[in-house]
Amino acid sequence: MSDKTGIAWTNATWNPITGCTKVSQGCKNCYAEREWARLSANPKATAYYGRAFTDIRCHPDRLTEGPIRWRKPRMIFVNSMSDLFHEKVPFEFIDEVFEVINCSPMHTFQILTKRPERMLEYFQRSEIAWAVEEGPLDNVWLGVSVEDQATADERIPLLLQTPAAVRWVSAEPLLGPIDLEEVPVGMFGPLRPYGGSVPDTPRLDWVVCGGESGGPKARPTHPDWAEDLKSQCEEADVPYFFKQWGEWLPVNQMTETELDKLHRSNRIAKDGEDQGAMDEAFGTHCTVPVTVVGTDGVCLAVTDPMAFQAGRGGMTTFRVGVHKAGCKLNGKEWQEWPAGWNREEV
Predict the structure, then answer these.
(1) 246 with 322: CB under 8 angstroms?
(2) Would you call 216 helix, strand, or coil by DSSP?
(3) Residue 197: which pLDDT band, with cuts at 50, 70 and 90?
(4) Is the N-terminal amide bond of 173 cis, ω within 30° of 0?
(5) What is the per-residue burial (b if ≥16 Cβ within 10 Å, else e) of 82-104?
Protein backbone atom coordinates (compact mmCIF):
# COMPACT_ATOMS: atom_id res chain seq x y z
CA MET A 1 0.00 0.00 0.00
CA SER A 2 1.37 3.40 -0.94
CA ASP A 3 0.06 6.92 -1.33
CA LYS A 4 2.65 7.32 -4.10
CA THR A 5 3.23 5.16 -7.16
CA GLY A 6 5.09 5.10 -10.44
CA ILE A 7 2.00 3.91 -12.32
CA ALA A 8 1.19 6.73 -14.71
CA TRP A 9 -2.60 6.44 -14.62
CA THR A 10 -3.13 6.50 -10.85
CA ASN A 11 -2.01 8.35 -7.69
CA ALA A 12 -1.78 5.55 -5.13
CA THR A 13 -2.12 1.81 -4.60
CA TRP A 14 -4.09 -0.10 -1.95
CA ASN A 15 -3.63 -3.83 -1.39
CA PRO A 16 -6.24 -5.35 0.96
CA ILE A 17 -5.39 -8.65 -0.77
CA THR A 18 -1.96 -9.97 -1.75
CA GLY A 19 -0.81 -12.93 -3.80
CA CYS A 20 -2.09 -14.22 -7.12
CA THR A 21 -2.00 -17.03 -9.68
CA LYS A 22 -1.49 -16.85 -13.44
CA VAL A 23 -4.36 -17.21 -15.90
CA SER A 24 -2.98 -16.18 -19.32
CA GLN A 25 0.10 -15.11 -21.27
CA GLY A 26 -0.22 -11.57 -19.94
CA CYS A 27 0.72 -12.95 -16.51
CA LYS A 28 3.94 -14.61 -17.68
CA ASN A 29 6.30 -11.85 -16.53
CA CYS A 30 4.05 -10.43 -13.81
CA TYR A 31 5.47 -7.25 -12.24
CA ALA A 32 3.82 -8.09 -8.90
CA GLU A 33 5.60 -11.45 -8.82
CA ARG A 34 8.92 -9.71 -9.48
CA GLU A 35 8.29 -7.35 -6.59
CA TRP A 36 7.28 -10.32 -4.46
CA ALA A 37 10.75 -11.84 -4.66
CA ARG A 38 12.16 -8.77 -2.94
CA LEU A 39 9.36 -8.36 -0.40
CA SER A 40 9.18 -12.01 0.62
CA ALA A 41 12.89 -11.97 1.47
CA ASN A 42 12.59 -8.91 3.71
CA PRO A 43 11.77 -9.68 7.38
CA LYS A 44 10.49 -6.13 7.78
CA ALA A 45 7.83 -6.69 5.11
CA THR A 46 5.76 -8.75 7.53
CA ALA A 47 2.77 -9.21 5.20
CA TYR A 48 4.99 -10.84 2.56
CA TYR A 49 7.96 -12.36 4.39
CA GLY A 50 8.41 -16.07 3.73
CA ARG A 51 5.30 -16.37 1.57
CA ALA A 52 4.95 -17.77 -1.94
CA PHE A 53 3.38 -15.49 -4.53
CA THR A 54 0.58 -18.03 -5.01
CA ASP A 55 -0.39 -17.75 -1.33
CA ILE A 56 -3.56 -15.62 -1.56
CA ARG A 57 -4.30 -13.69 1.63
CA CYS A 58 -6.84 -11.12 2.70
CA HIS A 59 -5.68 -8.36 5.06
CA PRO A 60 -8.56 -7.07 7.20
CA ASP A 61 -6.17 -4.68 8.97
CA ARG A 62 -5.65 -2.79 5.71
CA LEU A 63 -9.34 -1.96 5.49
CA THR A 64 -8.82 0.62 8.22
CA GLU A 65 -5.63 1.98 6.67
CA GLY A 66 -4.94 3.96 3.54
CA PRO A 67 -8.04 5.23 1.72
CA ILE A 68 -10.24 5.51 4.80
CA ARG A 69 -7.60 7.74 6.42
CA TRP A 70 -6.42 9.69 3.38
CA ARG A 71 -8.16 13.07 3.38
CA LYS A 72 -6.75 14.38 0.11
CA PRO A 73 -8.69 12.98 -2.90
CA ARG A 74 -6.76 10.41 -4.89
CA MET A 75 -7.08 7.97 -7.75
CA ILE A 76 -6.39 4.62 -6.10
CA PHE A 77 -5.46 1.40 -7.91
CA VAL A 78 -6.98 -1.44 -5.89
CA ASN A 79 -4.81 -4.55 -5.56
CA SER A 80 -1.69 -3.87 -7.57
CA MET A 81 -0.32 -7.05 -5.92
CA SER A 82 -3.33 -9.29 -6.53
CA ASP A 83 -6.75 -9.59 -8.19
CA LEU A 84 -9.78 -8.47 -6.17
CA PHE A 85 -11.91 -11.13 -7.86
CA HIS A 86 -9.51 -14.03 -7.44
CA GLU A 87 -11.33 -17.32 -6.81
CA LYS A 88 -9.80 -17.61 -3.34
CA VAL A 89 -11.08 -14.22 -2.16
CA PRO A 90 -14.41 -14.69 -0.36
CA PHE A 91 -17.28 -12.51 -1.53
CA GLU A 92 -17.76 -11.48 2.09
CA PHE A 93 -14.30 -9.87 2.11
CA ILE A 94 -14.97 -8.17 -1.23
CA ASP A 95 -18.08 -6.74 0.45
CA GLU A 96 -15.84 -5.20 3.09
CA VAL A 97 -13.57 -3.72 0.44
CA PHE A 98 -16.55 -2.09 -1.26
CA GLU A 99 -17.80 -0.80 2.08
CA VAL A 100 -14.52 1.11 2.43
CA ILE A 101 -14.95 2.40 -1.10
CA ASN A 102 -18.53 3.42 -0.37
CA CYS A 103 -17.35 5.31 2.72
CA SER A 104 -14.60 7.11 0.76
CA PRO A 105 -16.47 9.15 -1.89
CA MET A 106 -13.60 11.63 -2.11
CA HIS A 107 -11.44 9.01 -3.82
CA THR A 108 -11.70 7.31 -7.21
CA PHE A 109 -11.01 3.54 -7.07
CA GLN A 110 -9.59 1.87 -10.18
CA ILE A 111 -10.08 -1.91 -10.26
CA LEU A 112 -8.60 -4.26 -12.85
CA THR A 113 -9.25 -7.98 -13.12
CA LYS A 114 -8.41 -10.89 -15.37
CA ARG A 115 -11.38 -12.74 -13.86
CA PRO A 116 -14.43 -10.83 -15.14
CA GLU A 117 -16.65 -13.90 -14.85
CA ARG A 118 -16.25 -13.82 -11.08
CA MET A 119 -16.66 -10.05 -11.01
CA LEU A 120 -19.96 -10.40 -12.84
CA GLU A 121 -21.03 -13.19 -10.48
CA TYR A 122 -20.26 -10.94 -7.53
CA PHE A 123 -22.40 -8.07 -8.81
CA GLN A 124 -25.28 -10.37 -9.70
CA ARG A 125 -25.80 -11.42 -6.07
CA SER A 126 -28.97 -10.21 -4.40
CA GLU A 127 -26.92 -9.11 -1.37
CA ILE A 128 -25.55 -6.16 -3.31
CA ALA A 129 -28.68 -5.07 -5.11
CA TRP A 130 -27.54 -1.46 -4.51
CA ALA A 131 -25.12 -1.89 -7.39
CA VAL A 132 -28.01 -2.37 -9.79
CA GLU A 133 -31.08 -0.74 -8.28
CA GLU A 134 -29.45 2.43 -6.98
CA GLY A 135 -26.85 2.54 -9.69
CA PRO A 136 -23.14 1.68 -9.46
CA LEU A 137 -20.89 3.62 -7.12
CA ASP A 138 -19.78 6.82 -8.84
CA ASN A 139 -16.22 6.48 -7.56
CA VAL A 140 -15.52 2.98 -8.90
CA TRP A 141 -13.95 2.26 -12.27
CA LEU A 142 -14.17 -1.42 -13.23
CA GLY A 143 -11.79 -2.73 -15.86
CA VAL A 144 -10.27 -5.83 -17.40
CA SER A 145 -6.68 -6.54 -18.38
CA VAL A 146 -6.26 -7.98 -21.87
CA GLU A 147 -3.18 -8.74 -23.94
CA ASP A 148 -4.45 -9.90 -27.33
CA GLN A 149 -7.61 -10.52 -29.35
CA ALA A 150 -8.46 -13.78 -27.58
CA THR A 151 -8.41 -12.27 -24.09
CA ALA A 152 -10.27 -9.17 -25.32
CA ASP A 153 -12.99 -11.37 -26.84
CA GLU A 154 -13.26 -13.35 -23.61
CA ARG A 155 -13.15 -10.59 -20.98
CA ILE A 156 -14.65 -7.41 -22.43
CA PRO A 157 -18.18 -8.78 -23.00
CA LEU A 158 -18.33 -9.82 -19.33
CA LEU A 159 -17.12 -6.38 -18.26
CA LEU A 160 -19.90 -4.72 -20.24
CA GLN A 161 -22.48 -6.85 -18.44
CA THR A 162 -21.21 -5.60 -15.08
CA PRO A 163 -22.66 -2.40 -13.54
CA ALA A 164 -20.03 0.33 -13.35
CA ALA A 165 -19.78 4.12 -13.48
CA VAL A 166 -16.70 3.78 -15.72
CA ARG A 167 -15.66 0.69 -17.68
CA TRP A 168 -12.12 0.47 -18.96
CA VAL A 169 -9.57 -1.81 -20.54
CA SER A 170 -5.87 -2.09 -19.82
CA ALA A 171 -4.16 -3.60 -22.86
CA GLU A 172 -0.88 -4.15 -21.05
CA PRO A 173 1.29 -5.94 -21.78
CA LEU A 174 0.08 -5.64 -25.36
CA LEU A 175 1.26 -8.88 -26.96
CA GLY A 176 -0.76 -8.88 -30.17
CA PRO A 177 -3.19 -6.86 -32.27
CA ILE A 178 -6.64 -6.09 -30.84
CA ASP A 179 -9.57 -5.08 -33.02
CA LEU A 180 -12.20 -3.90 -30.56
CA GLU A 181 -14.86 -3.89 -33.26
CA GLU A 182 -14.39 -7.66 -33.49
CA VAL A 183 -15.14 -8.22 -29.79
CA PRO A 184 -18.47 -10.10 -29.73
CA VAL A 185 -20.75 -7.56 -28.06
CA GLY A 186 -22.84 -6.48 -31.04
CA MET A 187 -22.36 -4.25 -34.04
CA PHE A 188 -19.22 -2.09 -33.97
CA GLY A 189 -17.93 -3.64 -30.74
CA PRO A 190 -17.53 -2.13 -27.26
CA LEU A 191 -16.35 1.30 -28.41
CA ARG A 192 -19.47 2.03 -30.43
CA PRO A 193 -22.08 -0.61 -29.48
CA TYR A 194 -24.86 -0.84 -32.05
CA GLY A 195 -23.57 2.25 -33.73
CA GLY A 196 -24.84 4.38 -30.87
CA SER A 197 -28.47 3.70 -31.80
CA VAL A 198 -29.23 2.52 -28.26
CA PRO A 199 -28.09 5.23 -25.81
CA ASP A 200 -28.06 2.96 -22.75
CA THR A 201 -26.00 0.22 -24.34
CA PRO A 202 -22.82 -0.18 -22.23
CA ARG A 203 -19.59 0.85 -23.88
CA LEU A 204 -15.98 1.26 -22.94
CA ASP A 205 -15.12 4.61 -21.39
CA TRP A 206 -11.33 4.37 -21.44
CA VAL A 207 -8.54 2.35 -23.07
CA VAL A 208 -5.05 2.13 -21.59
CA CYS A 209 -2.26 0.57 -23.63
CA GLY A 210 1.33 -0.34 -22.85
CA GLY A 211 4.28 -2.58 -23.53
CA GLU A 212 5.79 -5.08 -21.11
CA SER A 213 8.36 -4.22 -18.46
CA GLY A 214 10.33 -6.80 -16.53
CA GLY A 215 13.91 -6.98 -17.70
CA PRO A 216 15.40 -9.53 -20.09
CA LYS A 217 12.27 -11.70 -20.32
CA ALA A 218 9.95 -8.88 -21.37
CA ARG A 219 8.34 -9.20 -24.79
CA PRO A 220 8.22 -6.33 -27.30
CA THR A 221 5.10 -4.53 -28.49
CA HIS A 222 4.75 -3.92 -32.22
CA PRO A 223 4.00 -0.22 -32.87
CA ASP A 224 1.22 -1.12 -35.31
CA TRP A 225 -0.79 -2.63 -32.43
CA ALA A 226 -0.56 0.52 -30.31
CA GLU A 227 -1.23 2.83 -33.25
CA ASP A 228 -4.25 0.80 -34.34
CA LEU A 229 -5.80 0.90 -30.87
CA LYS A 230 -5.29 4.67 -30.80
CA SER A 231 -7.01 5.04 -34.18
CA GLN A 232 -9.95 2.90 -33.05
CA CYS A 233 -10.38 5.06 -29.95
CA GLU A 234 -10.11 8.30 -31.94
CA GLU A 235 -12.78 7.19 -34.40
CA ALA A 236 -15.12 6.27 -31.53
CA ASP A 237 -14.26 9.35 -29.42
CA VAL A 238 -13.04 7.16 -26.54
CA PRO A 239 -10.07 8.44 -24.48
CA TYR A 240 -6.79 6.62 -25.09
CA PHE A 241 -3.87 6.47 -22.66
CA PHE A 242 -0.51 5.17 -23.90
CA LYS A 243 1.35 4.27 -20.72
CA GLN A 244 4.74 3.02 -21.94
CA TRP A 245 6.70 1.04 -24.52
CA GLY A 246 8.10 -1.20 -21.82
CA GLU A 247 11.58 -2.66 -22.11
CA TRP A 248 11.69 -2.57 -25.91
CA LEU A 249 11.62 0.49 -28.17
CA PRO A 250 10.77 0.12 -31.88
CA VAL A 251 13.20 1.68 -34.32
CA ASN A 252 10.45 3.77 -35.93
CA GLN A 253 9.96 5.54 -32.59
CA MET A 254 13.60 6.61 -32.37
CA THR A 255 15.56 9.56 -33.73
CA GLU A 256 18.78 8.98 -35.67
CA THR A 257 20.73 10.36 -32.71
CA GLU A 258 19.08 7.90 -30.31
CA LEU A 259 19.79 5.03 -32.70
CA ASP A 260 23.43 6.07 -33.14
CA LYS A 261 23.95 6.08 -29.37
CA LEU A 262 23.11 2.37 -29.27
CA HIS A 263 26.01 1.48 -31.57
CA ARG A 264 29.77 1.44 -31.13
CA SER A 265 32.52 1.37 -33.70
CA ASN A 266 34.28 -1.95 -34.26
CA ARG A 267 37.49 -0.02 -34.79
CA ILE A 268 38.33 3.37 -33.30
CA ALA A 269 39.96 5.78 -35.74
CA LYS A 270 43.59 6.64 -35.10
CA ASP A 271 45.17 10.04 -35.60
CA GLY A 272 44.62 11.13 -39.16
CA GLU A 273 41.89 8.54 -39.81
CA ASP A 274 38.23 9.32 -40.39
CA GLN A 275 35.85 7.53 -38.01
CA GLY A 276 33.11 7.45 -40.63
CA ALA A 277 35.44 5.67 -43.04
CA MET A 278 36.45 3.22 -40.30
CA ASP A 279 32.83 2.44 -39.54
CA GLU A 280 32.10 1.89 -43.20
CA ALA A 281 35.04 -0.44 -43.51
CA PHE A 282 34.84 -2.32 -40.21
CA GLY A 283 31.23 -1.79 -39.22
CA THR A 284 29.60 -1.07 -35.88
CA HIS A 285 27.91 -3.22 -33.27
CA CYS A 286 24.80 -2.69 -31.17
CA THR A 287 25.35 -2.44 -27.42
CA VAL A 288 21.87 -3.62 -26.40
CA PRO A 289 19.81 -6.70 -27.30
CA VAL A 290 17.86 -6.37 -30.54
CA THR A 291 15.05 -8.41 -32.08
CA VAL A 292 12.60 -8.16 -34.95
CA VAL A 293 8.95 -8.50 -33.95
CA GLY A 294 6.32 -9.28 -36.55
CA THR A 295 2.71 -8.16 -36.48
CA ASP A 296 1.91 -11.73 -35.41
CA GLY A 297 4.04 -11.27 -32.28
CA VAL A 298 6.77 -13.70 -33.35
CA CYS A 299 10.28 -12.41 -32.63
CA LEU A 300 13.24 -13.32 -34.86
CA ALA A 301 16.91 -12.40 -34.85
CA VAL A 302 17.92 -9.60 -37.21
CA THR A 303 20.12 -12.14 -39.00
CA ASP A 304 17.22 -14.51 -39.62
CA PRO A 305 16.37 -14.53 -43.35
CA MET A 306 12.67 -14.55 -42.46
CA ALA A 307 12.87 -11.51 -40.15
CA PHE A 308 11.92 -8.96 -42.80
CA GLN A 309 9.95 -11.20 -45.13
CA ALA A 310 7.27 -9.35 -47.08
CA GLY A 311 3.92 -9.39 -45.32
CA ARG A 312 5.41 -10.16 -41.92
CA GLY A 313 5.58 -6.53 -40.82
CA GLY A 314 8.96 -7.06 -39.20
CA MET A 315 9.94 -4.19 -36.89
CA THR A 316 13.40 -3.90 -35.34
CA THR A 317 13.17 -3.25 -31.61
CA PHE A 318 15.89 -2.52 -29.06
CA ARG A 319 15.87 -3.42 -25.37
CA VAL A 320 16.77 -0.04 -23.94
CA GLY A 321 14.80 -0.32 -20.68
CA VAL A 322 11.52 1.17 -19.53
CA HIS A 323 12.80 4.64 -18.70
CA LYS A 324 14.70 5.19 -21.94
CA ALA A 325 11.90 3.70 -24.03
CA GLY A 326 9.49 6.22 -22.55
CA CYS A 327 5.82 6.76 -23.32
CA LYS A 328 5.74 8.70 -26.58
CA LEU A 329 3.84 7.20 -29.49
CA ASN A 330 4.88 8.78 -32.78
CA GLY A 331 6.59 11.59 -30.90
CA LYS A 332 3.61 12.49 -28.70
CA GLU A 333 2.36 11.55 -25.25
CA TRP A 334 -1.20 10.20 -25.34
CA GLN A 335 -2.63 10.56 -21.85
CA GLU A 336 -6.36 11.02 -22.23
CA TRP A 337 -8.88 10.40 -19.46
CA PRO A 338 -12.56 9.56 -19.16
CA ALA A 339 -14.68 12.71 -19.44
CA GLY A 340 -14.39 14.91 -16.39
CA TRP A 341 -11.39 13.07 -14.91
CA ASN A 342 -7.66 13.68 -14.73
CA ARG A 343 -5.15 12.23 -12.33
CA GLU A 344 -3.47 15.59 -11.83
CA GLU A 345 -6.75 17.29 -10.98
CA VAL A 346 -7.97 14.80 -8.36
Answers:
(1) yes
(2) helix
(3) very low
(4) yes
(5) bbbbbeebeeebbeebbebbeeb
CB atoms within 10 A of CB 65: 14
CA 157/CA 116 separation, integer angstroms: 9
d(CA 20, CA 140): 22
pLDDT in tens, 266-320: 889 888 888 888 888 888 899 999 999 999 999 999 999 999 999 999 999 999 9
Residue 194 has pLDDT above 60, yes or no: no
What size, in residues, is the chain?
346
Report CA dihedral (183, 28, 216, 290) to the nearest 10 degrees: -30
* Neighbouring residues of 287: CB distance < 8 A, sequence distance ≥ 6: 262, 263, 264
- Spatial distance between the Cα atoms of 292 and 303, rounded to a whole number of angstroms: 9
Cα distances from 149 to residues 87, 160, 179, 182, 261, in angstroms, run: 24, 16, 7, 8, 36
Question: How much is the pTM?
Answer: 0.91
What is the Cα–Cα distance from 191 to 206, expressed in whole angstroms?
Answer: 9
Provide the pLDDT for residue 196. Answer: 47
Which burial class, exposed, middle or buried, applies to 110 when counting CB atoms under 10 A from its CB (0-12, 13-18, 19+)?
buried
CA distance 51 to 41: 9
Confidence of residue 175 (pLDDT cuts 50, 70, 90): very high
CA 49, distance to chain mean position in Å, is 27
